[in-house]
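We modelled the chain as a single entity of 154 amino acids. Its sequence is:
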Amino acid sequence: MSARSIGAEQYGRLLIEIFEEWVRRDVGERYVQMFDVALASWVGEPPGLCVHSPTCGRAVALEHNGDLYSCDHYVEPGYLLGNIAESPMARLVDSPRQRSFGAAKSTTLPGQCRGCEVRFACHGGARRTASSKRTTAKPASTTCAPATESSSAT
């Protein structure tokens, strides 16, 4: 999140406007990934995006030099799994370290997400935005409103 980022309420309004246009004119003609992901969640199917899965860690990032990272959003030294020229990619992806990285998404969800009635739809979103360090005055993820907003909206 940065100063240029939109808030949860703005993002929600944007998605609603896009959905209303799409459902009137484009169903069957245009594919909107976020709507397919939402539909899958609501009918009990696995999401098509890792950010909406209960765990993560399958969207690794492979750099031109063979370095493999835990996630395409974590191409940083602390998340380097190894180099595929030195270790088979399958071994790196299935390593205990990578499994721990993926499981951390659900084990570090803030209480706001853990208690959410629609958690099944996003599972807290991306790990970077569903940080356990969030306070209840801020959104737990980019897919929900702050606790004060959501409680007053119901």
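As a brief sanity check on the tokenised model: Residues 66 and 83 are 5 Å apart (CA to CA). Helices lie at 8-25, 33-42, 89-93, 96-107, 111-114, 119-122, 147-153.
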